[in-house]
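anyone seen this seq b4? input:
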Amino acid sequence: MFTGIVEELGEITAVETLDDACRFRLRGPVVTQGAKHGDSIAVNGVCLTVVDHEGDEFTADVMAETLNRSSLGALEVGSRVNLERPMAVGERLGGHIVQGHVDGTGEILERKPSEHWEIVKISLPADLTRYVVEKGSITVDGISLTVVDAGPDYFTVSLIPTTLDLTTLGHKQPGDPVNLEVDVIAKYVERMLGDRAQGAADRAQGVAR
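predicted toks r here
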């Protein structure tokens, strides 16, 4: 489990294309401290497993399912990425509960800079709109953010200078893809309410018979 608080901006140093997957080599001096085979590291919000680790670099395999559901397939040598290690038990939850399981991708639509912050408008896939609400939480490229405005096919977030300086959202431009993960609690609530409604309908049909 992650918190959406990015630890550092890493860099893709090598990409190996396989038949139905690819292997990334990434540089991240902070997240590689104490890293070992099998550890998890979130890369632009996608939970990946460390295959190998040497110095300040690590490798991770990305299967076709992940490439199809996320923006990782667009990464190339030199691409900057947000990196975060899993939250340790007992630490503060600075952002919100982030699984590292991308629900879909959006696209940067617009950026509106101001003196002390910047408003970024991002497209929202139709199947995710029901999970995104004003002042709710959403993960964008692994960054825990608060929704400012939730539209029918978009949402906006407000970025402070720290976020602009230390994450990929500081340099992404309109047209660039981003990974989205909605609040997992909303998905659980939807499932439970759906099961309850279905149970009530089944009981009603039983009485009718």
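The mean pLDDT is 89. The CA atoms of residues 126 and 153 lie 6 Å apart. kinda curious what u guys think
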